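Exercise 3.2. Students should predict the tertiary structure of the chain below and write it as structure tokens, then compare their answer with the key that follows.

Predict this chain's 3D structure.
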Amino acid sequence: MSAESTARAAFECHTDSAQPAVRSDSLTGSNMSTIPPTTEGRRRPVSVLALKLWEIAEALEQRLDNPAEVLEILVTAVAKGEQPVDAWQRLHAAAARHDKVAELAFAYEQTLSEKRVKLLQPEQQAFVYLRAAEFFSEALGDAEAASNHASRAALAVPGHPEAFALLENLLRQTGDALKLAELYVDASARESDLGRRDLFLHEASELIKTASGNEEKTIEIGQRVLRLDPSREDVRSVVVQRLIARG
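Answer key:
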């Protein structure tokens, strides 16, 4: 029996006496044990892709030679309906552990610019963009790049709770008041709960009043707030002042 067949058998059927087989993974350059037997005492079906993802996740604990190739496999897995969060987290950790952060950052930029990512289903796009946002934020401390990826996730799936929370945090870090105000206005427009809707509009209004720079954007966001809630005289005052200043 081949090593991969042994791995599949170990994954699918519980045997107390089963000894783990060992095989080498060319992507990470390490040897690894097969998937451990289940504790349920019964056969469990497993796809070839799921088995491969398990192997990659385990191998990443030991070595990482080619971050781009691993990222390629993970994106392909997402396209096939998987959400390999564990493998993705291990890839990020391995990149930091083995001094491959710069290589993985380059691989992200290359991969996310490809047409095939844009052809993923919206939820799949959001999943991939959020993994990129987490990497740029946590591994590189680049809040601006991370917020750009989180914005793409939010654009792919408007109202995506994870994308909203991450983007809100990142925009506060970067101090981009207008983008944050726009995020709150977008959320308010979708919100059915009146209390939360008013809270989002309040946050947007406060940001508009103190925003500096881009006058056109400030006016645009202020007008959107007023369309959603015409009673906000503080925002109306800001918009009128900016319109007068613009001439």
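Discussion points: The two ends are 80 Å apart (CA to CA). Residues 12 and 247 are 72 Å apart (CA to CA).
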